[in-house]
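BUG: 3D viewer hangs when loading the predicted structure for this chain

Environment: internal workstation, default settings.
Expected: structure renders.
Actual: progress bar stalls at 90%.

Input used:
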Amino acid sequence: EYSEDPLISFLTYDSRQVMKNTVFVCKGAHFQPSYLKEAVSKGAVCYISQVSYEEGNSIKAVIVKDIREAMAHIANLYYDNIWKKLSLIGITGTKGKSTTAYYIKSILDEHMALKGGEKAGILSSIENYDGVIFEESHLTTPETLELHNHFKNAVDKDIKYMVMEVSSQALKYDRTKGIVFNTG
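Structure tokens produced before the viewer hung:
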């Protein structure tokens, strides 16, 4: 009965972030079933995994073949392809991604200042800025769920451009799967 299904309020793979009505993604080489148990105790209503866990018996499970590919599809669905509302500029390569990203961001910031618009967002190996979050970066390209959350934040703050470094690891692990860049 669909009317009994809860409205999903959050999507995460970090058990510390789980709140009521969260879909919890079990991923990573260091994943431990205790993370799922913690997620259930905090209000997770479903988990997505490549394997079934006893710790998740009290909630629904979606078992998938490839968790990283599934995360990309799920993020696109959950965030309703929010990236389509941005002009996305992706930079990849062996050397010069950060320098190029900051040159482009600077040009776009000047352009937007003349138009009275918001500064461009940036996701880089140095820092992430999306209009809400301004933080030191931990990955060149954020994991899929964080990436889509950055896109949502940028759209919510009327940011038109998002400049991002796209690492070979991000491509290999499907972090940007399903996203179409305006410029690459």
